[in-house]
Give the backbone structure.
Amino acid sequence: MRKIIVTGLNGVGKSHFAARLAHVRPDIPVVSFDALKLMTNWRQKPRPEIDAALIREVEKPEWILEGGPSALFQAAPHADALVWLDPPEPVRLLQLARRPWISRGKTRTEIPDGNVDWPWQQYGFAWRSFRKRAQNHAYLSGFFAQVEDIPKWQCRSEASRAEVLRQWSNG
């Protein structure tokens, strides 16, 4: 395994888990889908630019791609493995509530400069994500079921994440 996708809904810990994967195999770079798609002040680049940047990254020989469901369609055909972080909803909600305060007034490392976290702005984004959770979860579930011929994990617990790390460390 040299190309792995870490996906899931907002607030499930994709960036954190991708960093853990990179810690185990520091020779493989982490690619943040948010870094590919965002400009400053949380504005997105035009979709053709996002798509071109994503294709350039997934055509490389190795990577850890972390991003939400919208990255999957183009990236999955290039992947050696797929990880869906899917913690219980109360865990996700707690993470969504905490994150804006932890990174308040800063730009998270996986986000391009000029995109500063402020709690009310992030809570608005989290609320929109939370309202679409059933639709997005159904999409991920269907996509995950269709992926064949590569290892895939639906991680609902820390134990399942540890198993992914164990297998990833073996290459």
In short: The chain has a mean pLDDT of 90. The radius of gyration is 15 Å.
